[in-house]
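Q: For a teaching session next week I want to show students how multiple molecules come together into a single three-dimensional assembly. I've collected the sequence lines for a complex. Could you give me the predicted structure tokens for the whole thing so I can convert them for display?
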Amino acid sequence: MSNLFDLLVAGLATGAIYALVAVGFTLLWQTSQTINFAQGEFVMLPAFLMLAAMHAGAPFWLAIILGILLSMILLGLGFKLLLVDPMMRHGVLPLAIATMALAIGLKEAVKQFFSAEASPFPSIVPTGDVSILGHAVSLQSIGVLVVAILAVFGLTALLNRTSLGHQMQAAAQNPTVARIIGVPVERMILLTFLINAVLVALASLLITPIYLAKFSSGEVLGQAAFIAAIVGGFNQVRGAIAGGLLIGVLDNLAASYVSTQYRAAVPLIFLIVVILFRPQGLLGRAEERTV
Amino acid sequence: MRSTILAGALLAFAAATSVHAQAIKLADVAELSGGGATVGTNWKNGIDLAIEEINAKGGVLGRKLEVSHADSQSNPGVARAQVQKALDAEPYVLLGPGYSGSVKVTAPLAAEAGIAQIMGGEAAELTQAGNKFLFRTSFGQQSSMPKVAKYIHDDMKAKTVAVVWVNNDFGRGGRDMVSKELERLGSKVVADLSTEAGQADFAADVGKIKAANPDAVFVYLNEEESARILKELKRQGVTAPLMGETTLIGQKVIELAGDAANGARGHVGLTTDAPVDLIKAFREKFAKKYNYVPDHNGLKGYLAVYMVKATTEKMGKVDPKKFADTLHGLTIKAADEPGILMDVTFSDTGDIDRQSFLVEVVEGKQVVKQVLPKVK
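A: Of course. Below is the structure for the complete assembly, covering every listed component.
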């Protein structure tokens, strides 16, 4: 029983990070029909930007701020202007393939300019335990959960409670009508790219102390978050959150109760079941086809 | 006039060939680039240092040593091609490679040529294939795991042990060996956890260890995974003592795992931190020549050349065909040949028996806690 509790806490902590990354997936899809297969590498890169800032002498807090700012510039603005905008007019598939190429490019660049070996990364949460319901739970797990939940709540509040959020939703749901009523659609799309960049930088900050900074660490994350987004519902932010948490917990339970070798297969099997019986995702909205 | 020139040229040629014939030619194939560059560069530098020392003292049986270095690019296919090329030049002894995978594919070539191969690989299977020409410079798993199991049973007093291993040839070999020895000594393996190479998340594995509540945990993973599991063990508050091999307490693991590595213990066959005067002197010489402190691969390369020297002097002649036979069963004492650093005995399979060290990570530093004697 104690084992199950530990697994649930660890699974939720990892799942919360998947959720952050999956939310980014759904945001980009909703506003610009971008399926970003480099999303995992987007999580890997900010950690290296922060490490580079620290190597240049910046304290950790400053490195975090610089890392987030740089990822907004590179992974938000740069990604949209240099890759998404030119490729968009050719359709969803060429753009998706271009993001795959970007993923390879990012990995190789980090390997070339940083190192092929893993590097340690400091944690924003101190090590130690607190007792919850008689169980020792690590501060790190709690810290990861709290930061991820705050980020998701902040984002939901922005989308649902502010005029800016409403404009973003309008731009996502029906860009033509949104334009007619005066919503600056292009600016809203850019904003979602910037929000995605902040989300991946946060995920990077939370996961890298556990997974270590390595050029290849985005592969697992990107895949998990992609599955989470589909399972939860690619067109719903709350679906991505639920999908992320679910995949995190499922992954840990599978590793413990099924087998470590097949742990990666269990979320994929779950994904197939969801696609077969509820193709719009657990919390997703069915979309009508126009053709 | 013409005949004088011809005679002079012939004389010069004869002199050149006789100098050439006097040198004993060794061939080294090592991981000088690619993923194993650290391993291969240390190995090569160790070889060069030993040859420089030996030649400065007059060589072996009055003949100088010469070595050619070739790069395997850390790739077994390239290693095979380079070894074939090296063997075509008919060296006295072949040195390297360092990676077990490269040794596995090159050993049959050296055996076919009847040339002894002194290598750096540590996988158990290498010396179990009946190859009569292959020799180790460090422990294989079959030599190190009995010592590890004995330490867990006798010194850690662990009646129950969790064994965590990486699911590849290296991990499986170590796990089979240590589990068998633990059971033989009377310690029970209560959790047998296989993990994947490159695995990032160890929460579930550590959860299982916690559930099994063992007296000790044996961790046998590669360096990066070792660092990740050490962090997770600390995160989940596992307090059972941790035991491993070089891969658990190496400098890279300490750097990656930080505080979480403190208290971890490991069995190390060769370390430049060993409390042995000859090893300390080697470390100083190496650091002076190359401006960095070598890892155990530097020691391995150095020892390989001194194995050549000691064996040749034992034979009293330079005979590549008899070299392997002479080295089988040979004991070389550091008192007689200081370059061998510690007393060592070679078995009929080319395995090594030598004292080794029990290292603990204390405040981010490797500290040798115990010297474990030779098995026989």
